């Protein structure tokens, strides 16, 4: 695993994901119940940015056609998306958030 610093935890507001770009791919870092999660930022329906969407409960909602995804697991909760979002390992060290964006390439 190759963790890299993505941002400070202060960059991630409770209802506003932080977009971290790695190798041209945007990853959304989301705060939920005093924890942080890293998921693909790109909606699997029509490739819209989920960082432009909103958070409701434990779901992130795509603003374009209102698909819903579970923040913790990336699973689809509501169509029109059917493919889950990729999730990424994340760890907090002090106030810094580290993710492993290559975890699924190995
Ligand atoms: S692009 Fe996200 S629901 Fe269509």
What hetero molecules are bound to the protein chains?
FE2/S2 (inorganic) cluster
Class per helix and strand makeup: mainly beta
Biggest β-sheet: count, sense, barrel?
A: 4 strands, antiparallel
Number of domains: 1
Strand portion:
35-45%
Which consecutive residue ranges, at least 5 long each, have pLDDT under 50? none
Helix residue percentage? under 10%
CATH superfamily: Rieske [2Fe-2S] iron-sulphur domain
In a few lines, what is going on in this structure?
The chain is built from no helices and eleven strands. With 106 residues, it is an all-beta fold.
Question: How would you describe the overall organization of this protein?
Answer:
A four-stranded antiparallel β-sheet has the order 2-3-4-9, with no helix packed on it. It has one domain: Rieske [2Fe-2S] iron-sulphur domain (Rieske Iron-sulfur Protein, 3-layer Sandwich). The model has no long low-confidence stretch (mean pLDDT 94). It is mostly beta strands and 106 residues long. The protein is globular. The N and C termini lie close together (9 Å). The chain contains no helices and eleven strands. FE2/S2 (inorganic) cluster binds next to loops.
Characteristic terms for this protein:
single chain, 106 residues, mainly beta, Rieske Iron-sulfur Protein, four-stranded antiparallel sheet, 11 strands, 0% helix, globular, binds FE2/S2 (inorganic) cluster
Secondary structure topology:
Elements: E1 4-8, E2 18-22, E3 25-32, E4 35-40, E5 54-56, E6 59-61, E7 68-70, E8 76-78, E9 87-88, E10 90-93, E11 96-99
Antiparallel strand pairs: 1-11, 2-3, 3-4, 4-9, 5-6, 6-7, 7-8, 10-11
This protein binds FE2/S2 (inorganic) cluster.
């Amino acid at each position: 695993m190759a963790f890299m610093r993505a941002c400070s935890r202060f960059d991630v507001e409770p209802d506003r994901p932080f977009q971290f770009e790695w190798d041209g791919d945007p990853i959304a870092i989301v705060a939920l119940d005093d924890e942080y999660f890293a998921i693909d930022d790109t909606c699997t329906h029509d490739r819209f940015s989920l960082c432009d969407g909103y958070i409701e409960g434990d779901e992130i909602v795509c603003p374009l056609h209102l698909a819903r995804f579970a923040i913790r697991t990336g699973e689809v909760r509501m169509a029109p998306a059917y493919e889950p979002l990729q999730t990424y390992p994340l760890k907090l060290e002090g106030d810094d958030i580290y993710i492993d964006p290559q975890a699924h390439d190995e």
